[in-house]
Design brief:
Blueprint (H helix, E strand, L loop, with lengths): L9 H26 L10 H55 L6 H24 L19 E4 L6 E4 L16 H8 L4 H45 L3 H27 L10
Antiparallel strand pairs: 1-2
Length: about 280
């Protein structure tokens, strides 16, 4: 039974409640559209927002790890460039050593070859000492000179990957031999030149492998970030096509709710006709 009263307007109350719910839904939809997120803060969905923040932290960590490895890659590239030049020069040094091992050389010829040898030896020393990047080098074990092992982070957990430095002195041949026998001794299987050439080749192999490892790790981290971004989007991103359709429906519903409330508010006016 309808209640004819100016104190209680049931129709207006129902219309107002419906309009308030519509306005709340409209505000939520507008927030999703304006931010692009279905979950933009903890009020939208506390559990989903907490997970999203954890994923965002992982992405930030991986980004930092890649930046750090990029710097270390610069050290490695510089090191390999220096070692390549050392390796090339060691080939020239061997050629001179073979000549110095010839016992038929005159004193003048031997002196000239010794001078050439020392010039090449100085080049090797310079290549080793100049192989620095941002004050760091892997061709020295002296920490005071920017050398020593380098431990770089490789992932968002702070796990490190260590690059072991080598002593540059082990890559540089001794002074020029004074006679043919000394030169031949340096060329022997356990001689100074052979030992130093083996050390250069070993360093090339080690640092080449290190460089490949870091490159692969950086690529993997990028792929991992893409996967995390995809998962994060599925968790918190808004479906803008759906939200657009919802927005239009709610706007129409809001207009109808406003009209319905207006009609309900006019209902008590009809009671005035009973007193005429």
């Amino acid at each position: 039974m309808a209640l004819n009263s100016v104190n209680t307007n049931i129709g207006a109350s129902v219309a107002l409640q419906t309009l308030n719910r519509t306005n709340d839904a409209l505000n939520a939809t507008q927030k999703r559209i304006s931010t692009g997120y279905r979950v933009s803060d903890a009020k939208d969905d506390g559990a989903a927002f907490a997970v999203a923040q954890s994923v965002r932290a992982d992405i930030a960590g991986i980004t930092s790890a890649n930046e750090q490895m990029g710097g270390v890659q610069g050290v490695l590239d510089t090191t390999l460039s220096g070692l390549n030049k050392v390796s090339e020069t060691m080939g020239d040094i061997k050629g001179v050593l073979v000549k110095l091992a010839d016992g038929t050389l005159s004193d003048s010829q031997r002196s000239q070859y010794q001078s050439q040898y020392e010039s090449l030896r100085t080049q090797v020393q310079n290549y080793v000492s100049d192989a620095t990047y941002n004050g760091r080098t892997l061709l020295s074990t002296s920490t005071s000179a920017g050398g020593g092992n380098i431990a770089t982070v490789r992932n968002e957990k702070g796990t490190t990957y260590t690059l072991a430095a080598v002593d540059g002195a082990n890559l540089t041949v001794n002074a020029a031999p004074t006679d043919a026998a000394s030169a031949a001794s340096m060329l022997a299987s356990s001689g100074d030149f052979t030992t130093k050439m083996t050390a250069v080749n070993s360093a090339l192999n080690t640092f080449g492998n290190n460089s490949n490892y870091l490159s692969e790790q950086v690529d993997y981290n990028k792929q991992k970030m893409d996967s995390l971004q995809t998962g994060l989007g599925a968790l918190v991103d808004a479906d803008l096509a759906k939200e657009s359709a919802t927005l239009q429906a709610l706007q129409i519903k809001q207009q109808l709710g406003t009209q319905s409330l207006s009609i309900a508010n006019q209902a008590p006016q009809s009671l005035m006709s009973l007193f005429r």
